[in-house]
Amino acid sequence: MKKLITQTLIASGVALSALSPVYAAEQGKEPMKAVGQYVDDATITTKVKAKHAEDETVSALRVNVETKQGVVVLSGEARTEAEVERAEVLAKQVEGVKAVSNKIELKPKS
Hints:
This protein is α/β, with parallel strands linked by helices. It has one domain. The chain is 56% helix and 18% strand. It has helices at 2-27, 31-54, 81-92; strands spanning 63-68, 71-78, 99-102, 105-106. Strands 1, 2, 3 and 4 form a four-stranded mixed β-sheet that branches. A hairpin with a 2-residue loop joins strand 1 and strand 2 (71-78). Helix 1 (2-27) runs antiparallel to helix 2. It is globular and about 45 Å long. The two termini are 25 Å apart. This is BON domain-containing protein. Residues 40-108 form the BON domain. Residues 1-24 form the signal peptide. InterPro entries: BON_dom (IPR007055), Lipoprotein_DolP (IPR051686). Keywords: Signal.
């Protein structure tokens, strides 16, 4: 199951990368600079999600990942403090990550 999730996340990242020229044009930005940054951010997001999917502690389905200019924002829910911390540690391990903003909410299983 985790392998399927990882493969799906990687495929999603590749698809996002292919759409980046359209995104840059819609934003009215200089295509090469905007496209490069968008591709980098999409790649970082994909790699962080893949790390989460492969990890036994973190639920890739409950933790959301967004990246803008190399800054990763984690959000969503975690069942334990260890999961919150582990999600951040894994994100920081990805090449190109400049900073991590951890906004994951602790929601213990009731």
